[in-house]
Amino acid sequence: MSLLNNFYEVNWLSVIVSAIVAFAIGGLWYSALLFGKSWQSLLKLSDEDVGNANMPLIFGLTFLLNLAGALVLDLTLGFAADWSEGLLTGLTISLAWVATSIGINYLFSRKPLKLFLIDAGYFVPFFTASLPNVP
Q1: What is the pTM for the complete model shown?
Q2: Is residue 73 over pLDDT 90?
Q3: How many other C-beta atoms lie within 10 A of the C-beta of residue 97?
Q4: Are 73 and 127 in contact (CB under 8 A)?
Q5: Tell me: the pLDDT tens digits for 111-133?
Q6: CB burial class (10 A; 0-12, 13-18, 19+) of residue 3?
Q7: Looking at residue 7, what DSSP letter applies?
Q8: Among 6, 20, 56, 67, which is least packed by CB within 10 angstroms?
Q9: Alpha helices in the chain (DSSP H)
Q10: CA nearest 87: which of 28, 27, 122, 132?
């Protein structure tokens, strides 16, 4: 399998930087500056609900999931990818796989379109900005 062959060529520094970038994008995306208040309202989460969450656990696991996403993107692209291929692959993954998967779940759970646009929309800059192993 080619993904396993690429594992030996993983640029771990690049993967970690990509995970940090994705984490930062999430922090901004779900902040009060962008979509945080709308997202919170659509989910009917009070400020108290948000304040009582186990944020170290949430942030820690989020970073590990960002790291996993960056690693798989690196493995998918392979060592020889250039920035335009990385950008196109990230965009394709976010729109064709992630957004469609979220969309199916949101349709069946009757979640509002605005919530879908916020949550699925986050993955477009997430995957297009996470360009591990791309010079």
Answers
A1: 0.85
A2: no
A3: 12
A4: yes
A5: 999 999 999 999 999 888 766 55
A6: exposed
A7: G
A8: 56
A9: 2-6, 12-29, 36-42, 47-51, 55-77, 83-92, 100-108, 113-129
A10: 132
